[in-house]
């Protein structure tokens, strides 16, 4: 039995939008009304079209659909409406209490850590989808009254690059998530969402990696002590034929960059899952990683990081594009302009989140965490 690192640490908070934005209290009736206004179905069913409007490129996951269907059936059984609210936006009331016991029993009955993990991920996504309908904009994931879409300028990403936002389910539909900016700016086929633990998403991503080959897949992870973690210069600066950077102009070659989109506590388990899968596909778990010369992101004002080499997802993409643009063989592809486009979108997001906090009478600064002593 293959154990998933981190499975024992999973908890049962189904719907946490993050620290920015009001807590959502919504019954399924009001959710359905708002869903009709935003193009969803009026019977509480989530369609594949609605799923993809949130930024997904995969088919609507069967496991998520099953949980949504189960919740709707349970709603009729207990004769109580689905309602989200309170600290963390959890399921509330009589329905919430009943469902909490039911899903815990289901989780405990699963005898395989992989099944437990997939159930956890699917339930997180299902609850967030139901709770966000008609409240969050499906493109920018902000509350409707704070929608920033009209201010974001789209930009074409160089066709030899594709980003993969490998997102933890707890970051899915978070208002202060920055990974979403990449597909807002570049489009979903240049920056694609893959939710950690969702089978359809992971299968689609790995099918693309298999076609590309291991030499054209890189993970951005600032673990500078690892022998497999190299700088952009060391990875792509050489002009040898073995270097994937030397053939990036090849029409048949696309370089895939994986961005781990989750908290730093979760990123180690996410990287381990990638390495485990790499071993089943390519025979070893040596998934090459890239470390960037990142600095402080604009989002540090609201989301301070534990150390300076750890930054938000969008800032990591900006740093990668900026460093690649300095390489002579890639300097003509406008990567610096593409980095600027993401930087502008990041500032717009920060302004939107800051404005909301000010209207709500909340602080626009976050307590700085204790720095990590690396000496």
Number of helices: 11
Radius of gyration: 21 Å
Proportion in β-strands? 5-15%
Q: What would you call the structural class?
A: alpha/beta
Span from first to last CA? 39 Å
Major β-sheet annotation = 6 strands, parallel
Enumerate the spans where pLDDT stays under 50 for 5 or more consecutive residues.
1-42, 370-375
- The global form is globular
Strand order of the largest sheet: 5-4-8-6-9-7
Helical amount among residues, as a percent range? Answer: 40-55%
Helices and strands in order, then pairings?
Layout: E1 26-27, H1 28-37, H2 48-53, H3 62-78, E2 83-85, E3 90-91, H4 93-109, H5 113-132, E4 161-167, H6 180-186, E5 191-195, H7 199-212, E6 217-220, E7 229-230, H8 232-236, E8 255-261, H9 264-282, E9 289-290, H10 313-325, H11 335-359
Summary keywords:
41% helix; 9 strands; alpha/beta; single chain; 375 residues; six-stranded parallel sheet; 9% strand
Q: Would you mind describing this structure in some detail?
A:
With 375 residues, the protein is an alpha/beta fold. 41% of the residues lie in helices and 9% in strands. The chain has eleven helices and nine strands. The chain has helices at 28-37, 48-53, 62-78, 93-109, 113-132, 180-186, 199-212, 232-236, 264-282, 313-325, 335-359; strands at 26-27, 83-85, 90-91, 161-167, 191-195, 217-220, 229-230, 255-261, 289-290. The strands form two sheets. The protein has a six-stranded parallel beta sheet with strand order 5-4-8-6-9-7, with helices on both faces. Helix 3 crosses helix 4. The radius of gyration is 21 Å and the shape is globular. One of its GO terms (molecular function) is tRNA-uridine aminocarboxypropyltransferase activity. InterPro entries: DTW, DTWD2/TAPT.
